[in-house]
């Protein structure tokens, strides 16, 4: 059986992109500004990471005129939601396998805690 | 980064960071459903106060304007975290409620000579339904 780490998606695993998808999975389309504030990242960092995710088809980026300005709306795609769920499952499997190894190495430890 | 190995602690930290981001996102946006429910409640309270409990029209209207004004001022201050088309649709829904009730349902009930206050409660509920629809994400697609 292959190690669960091989199922991790390097595209999603970056801290900013991971948090971005985690937030988007719980929201409807959101404003760029809101997302930058929520994740505490600069506009350029968010923009670069969104471009990577949008190119991979994991998020949608929509620009709409709002008066004299333009508002940018970000949403997660179905493919993005599925890829993120797979990534979470893999991470959980890694955590669980680590916990099992600790329990096997120290059988008395779990019983006492 | 995901090359040869990923320590268990790193995986656990990732999961924790994801949970934190998701929780913060939910917390930052949960005001919108509360705003919609408040606006719908104010609208229904106005129609019931005027046509069921026979409160003075201008007193009820003043309270409606005061309550809605406060709710909208707060909502506009947080508009950056509102869902796409959320406030626009809520505004259209409030205008629809007003038109539907004051220009159509209330005059129609008076025209047919309805006497039971329940007819006005029903009319109020029907008129307020466009505001209630703003609770659903599908109304903004």
Model description:
- The complex is a heterodimer of chains A (about 110) and B (about 140).
- Chain A has helices at about 10-15, 15-25, 30-40, 45-55, 80-105, 105-110; strands at about 30, 60-65, 70-75.
- With about 110 residues, chain A is of the alpha+beta class.
- In chain A, strands 1-3-2 form a three-stranded antiparallel beta sheet.
- With about 140 residues, chain B is an all-alpha fold.
- Chain B has one domain (about 30-140).
- Chain B has helices at about 10-30, 30-50, 55-75, 85-110, 115-135.
- The model of chain B has no long low-confidence stretch (mean pLDDT about 90).
- The interface between A and B is medium-sized, with 35 and 27 residues.
Structural class of chain B: mainly alpha
C-alpha end-to-end distance of chain A: 31 Å
Low-confidence stretches of chain B: none
- Strand composition percent of chain B: under 5%
The 3D shape of chain B can be described as elongated
Structural class of chain A: alpha+beta
**Arrangement of strands in the largest sheet of chain A:** 1-3-2
Cα(first) to Cα(last) distance of chain B is: 37 Å
Provide mean pLDDT of chain B, rounded.
Answer: 91
* Helix-strand string of chain A: HHEHHEEHH
Topology readout:
The complex is a heterodimer of chains A (113) and B (141).
Chain A: H1 10-13, H2 15-24, E1 30-31, H3 32-39, H4 43-55, E2 59-66, E3 69-76, H5 78-105, H6 107-112
Antiparallel strand pairs in A: 1-3, 2-3
Chain B: H1 8-29, H2 31-51, H3 57-77, H4 86-111, H5 117-133
Helix pairs in contact in B: 2-3, 2-4, 2-5, 4-5
List keywords for this structure.
heterodimer; A: 113 residues; alpha+beta; three-stranded antiparallel beta sheet; B: mainly alpha; elongated
